[in-house]
Amino acid sequence: MQIIVNHIDHIYNPGTVFEKKALSDVTFKAEDGEYIGLVGHTGSGKSTLALHLNGLMKPTSGGIYYDGVDIASEGYDLRSLRGKVGLVFQYPEHQLFEEDVFTDVCFGPKNLGLEPEETEQRAYESLKAVGIDDDRFYVSPFDLSGGEKRRAAIAGVLAMKPEVLVLDEPCAGLDPQGREEILSIADSLHEMLGITVIIISHSMDDLAEHVERMLVMHEGKLVMDGPAREVFMHREELESMGLAVPEAQAVLSDLKKMGLPVRDDLITIDEARREILRVFGRQA
């Protein structure tokens, strides 16, 4: 699987007084099995970009190619694409609507025209993959906890067997335990199933702990693209865009300015802890 975003623009309400350019000359390539963080301040264009990846929105100019084929080309099967590129919206639990959890997760594969046996098998596997217990399968989605609802909604997308999973602010509104559960699910899907995962988030700490590559959007443009560790080294540039670096890196950077001989290119809490202990001659 390969997605190529090739010099795309997107203009809302073109030719009217409400015209707004949301994306400007955005270009990047996502290879099979990557783990990517997509960040940007509110209004930067990151969610608009996500909607283009499975054809829910079309670029005003430029193209998006899935395995070398332009998804805007005549006769392209967008229904099939939306099974391959799964998009989990912010607060996806608001989209749960069936009478029980299992039936809700069956909705997607059923609409693909699959036989009932395969539909149910996919639903079962997806619910287990996100950690929903069997005794919760046939309760109303509205009786689930907040974290369970989020996981059930993700299972509904997983049941389509996507090759790419885009999670838009997957931890929004969750407590720390719920956040870690969702991010652990994203990790396991990436590692065990080889799914390409793209996480849209405001939390640099979450991304530092999980993703390998970062895409940074600002005012509709892709302004940074590279390994997470390298992107986070651009602290001043990120802060000028209303973003931050991970707290662990910020602490190390401040300690270095105070004269302590610490590395300031470490981005996770565990890395920072080990580095501080090293400097003070203690074993981690």
Report on this structure.
With 284 residues, the protein is of the alpha/beta class. The chain has eleven helices and ten strands. It has helices spanning 46-52, 78-84, 101-111, 116-129, 146-158, 176-193, 204-210, 228-231, 235-240, 247-257, 269-279, and strands spanning 2-12, 20-31, 35-40, 61-66, 69-70, 85-88, 164-168, 196-200, 213-218, 221-227. The mean pLDDT is 92.
Q: Which terms would index this structure?
A:
284 residues; single chain; 38% helix; alpha/beta
Short description:
This protein has 284 residues and is α/β, with parallel strands linked by helices. 38% of the residues lie in helices and 23% in strands. α3 runs parallel beside α5.
SSE topology sketch:
Elements lengths: L1 E11 L7 E12 L3 E6 L5 H7 L8 E6 L2 E2 L7 H7 E4 L12 H11 L4 H14 L16 H13 L5 E5 L7 H18 L2 E5 L3 H7 L2 E6 L2 E7 H4 L3 H6 L6 H11 L11 H11 L5
Helix pairs in contact: 3-4, 3-5, 4-5, 5-6, 10-11
By secondary-structure content and strand pairing, the structural class works out as alpha/beta
Share in β-strands: 15-25%
Unreliable stretches covering 5 or more consecutive residues: none
Percent of residues in helical segments? Answer: 25-40%
- Write down the oligomeric state: single chain
Q: Measured on Cα atoms, how large is the radius of gyration?
A: 20 Å
Shape: globular
Helical segment tally? 11
Beginning-to-end CA distance, first to last residue: 40 Å
Widest β-sheet, arrangement of strands = 6-7-8-3-9-10
How many beta strands in the DSSP annotation?
10
The average pLDDT value, as a whole number, equals 92
Element-by-element helix/strand order: EEEHEEHEHHHEHEHEEHHHH
- What does the largest sheet look like? 6 strands, mixed
